[in-house]
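Researcher: I'd like a structural prediction for the single chain below. Treat it as a standalone chain; there are no partners to consider.
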Amino acid sequence: MALTIKAKEQCRWDLVSLGEVMLRFDPGDRRVWTTRSFEVSEGGGEYNVARGLKRCFGLETAIVTAFADNPVGRLLQDLIHQGGVDQSLVRWVGYDGVGRAVRNGLNFTERGFGVRAALGCSDRGHTAASQLQAGDVDWDDIFGKRGARWFHTGGIFCALSETTPDVAMEAVKTARKHGTIVSYDLNYRESLWKAVGGKNRAQEVNRRMAPLIDVMIGNEEDFSAALGFEVRGLDEQISNVEAEAFKQMIESVVKEFPFQVVATTLRKAKTATRNDWGAIGYCDGKFYQARDRKDLEILDRVGGGDSFASGLIYGLLSGKDPQWSVDCGAAHGALAMTTPGDTSMVTVQEVVRVMQGAGARIAR
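Model: Treating it as a single chain, here is the predicted structure.
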């Protein structure tokens, strides 16, 4: 195994994530513009990985983020407490009473059903996390004095503002200096990048970050839009043809960037509630593919990729081989999409049962 991971005894945390945490508003069976009530939960690409590792897999994780100090921020704090992620690294910013200067991010998300696709509407301008700047966080204290075995961030955080890429770069460089493994989820979001330079800016930022990343995660759109790699043959359903297309892309990627692991999900959205689902990982010159799951039934697709990432990272942190790690990520992602919200609600025992091919008979 190529990754050299610090011993658990040396570190306060198994993983530290850097990213924004938003308050998600879910209208249930209705539309955002027709509902009269919402279910709320917390979520965010980088945070979801830390929460999955803590809540499902029992590892010690922390989130580096920022909140406006008002009742919405304190609601997010309360929700994060339930997931168990350490909040000691959260930065609290004074609130002006209106939100002219700083606020907390909101995310309105419909799950979709059948031919009606899932729909997201973010309200996250001028948020506390987007205003983080280089120098705001003592990364040497986190990675040097207290210690973290793994650091995770990604393209969503880097797209939030002109300053967030500098924060991520500072964190990544410091993590590497202290021997911490660094993973990065490209997680391309057109709606975030379009106001700050679009695909060209996304590729500029992500290609500058890429040489410093140990474990790169993304799907076909991510590698194309965020790193500029062309992926052919992706109009087919999950099959050996599509898997071969990904393998060719990954071979091109690792020729240019020194990633030790590359991992990607394979998804064919037939409808909002029926997807083909799989995953491929690359490590030490070899490919490892999880079994394809045809017509996987989806309750809420948001967070499936993040849960794949947390399952993959759990395997690698636990010293499992790459095949086990990819299988774990794919199973965890599949299970996470059977429950509402961005974050995993399953147990490690359930993940292992799905990895072993267990059916859906009632357990009692």
